[in-house]
Structures are given as structure tokens and as C-alpha cells.
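In response to reviewer comment 3 from the previous cycle, which asked for concrete evidence that the modeling workflow produces usable outputs, we include below a single protein chain processed end to end. The sequence was submitted unchanged, and the resulting C-alpha cells are shown without manual editing.
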Amino acid sequence: MLHGVLLKRHRVPRPGPGADKFIELGDLNVGMDVTFYGRTYRITNCDAFTRQFLTQLGVEVPQEQSVPQDPFTMTMKAKADAVQARRPFERIDKLKQFLTEDRHVLRFYCLWDDSHSEGGVKRYFVLHYFLADDSMELREIPQVNSGRSGPPLFLRRQRLAKSEIGLVKLPGQNSARTVLKTLGDVNHNMHILDRLRTGAVHESFYSD
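The workflow returned the following C-alpha cells.
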């Protein structure tokens, strides 16, 4: 099947007896058939600029016409939709986010006011949010004569959950997929996965 540029830029002659004349703008409009060197094309639509240009010239441009469906394309699409993978793994891909947002860090200045409690003081922090993996860390800003020493890292870099529900996981829960059944022996086995995640607990983390 031919593809690419089918007709290079040039003046196209009219088919038939008027071969000494060329196809002009008046021969092109939505809903019209135009023949280029023995091959007939149906004009089904045009862009906004073309429609506005023809309208300003006083030419009535019909509405967009539907394009006939290709039976072969529809058959192949129906076959592709009917195919179900035997082991439908869910794609978990964060490479694009890492490549796009690597070394991009948001910085926020925070205050923990604990002065209302006994012995409590105001403590100042810097919150770093890493766009590469939606993790964050909390570093304390040392204050003069605060009586505290040691590293300023208050919270190591990690993803923070919005709720404490599900933080303590039972054995087998720390996985993105649920195995319903295992078939085969020790050396050759197959796993039936639960694509619907029945009974899974949705975890919500802080994100940008």
C-alpha cells in the first residue's frame, strides 16, 4: 500500500477533455470528489483556517462527513480486543517521572510550635520534597543555645502516608499484586493474579 507523500506540490491538470486547464480552489470543498491522475478522492473535512477562508470568499462549506470504516481494520481491532493475556501483569513504571523530575526538589520552611506543652519550644525545619519519586525529608534548622546537638536530619527521606491505616502490614501484604493460586511444582510454577485487587487497602501518599 502506498504511503507518505502521494502528490508533490505542483499544479494538477484537470482530468478528461480539459487537461489543458488546472484544478483550482473552486474545485475543492467538503463533500466533493476530486480526481488526481485517475485516482478519485473524497473530501470529508477541512481545518478551521480553510473553513474560515472559504466562508470569507462567500463559499458555503458543508459540515464534516463521516469516513467509512475499513473492514480489515475493524476485524483486526476486534481480534486484538478479544485477546486476554494469560498473565496480565499491571505495569508499574516510574522511569518517566524519574527522568523528567530528577534533581528537582521543592523546599518549604516549617515551624513546630510546641511551646504550649511543658518544656516545649519552637523548632524550625526545612521540608524537602523530591519530585523524582514523591518522597520527602525533614531537616531541623539548628538554633543557637538550643541545647540540642547531633545531626539535623529529623525525618529521613521516604514517602509519607496520609493515614496511619495499613502502615503495619501483615506477611504477604507488602506487594503490589495479590496471588490467588499457585500451579505447578517447585521448579516450574504459574501464578494466578487478582487484577481486581479484591480486598486491597488503598494507600494515599503525599504527592505534588
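The mean pLDDT is 82. We consider this sufficient to address the reviewer's concern, and the full set will be provided in the supplementary archive.
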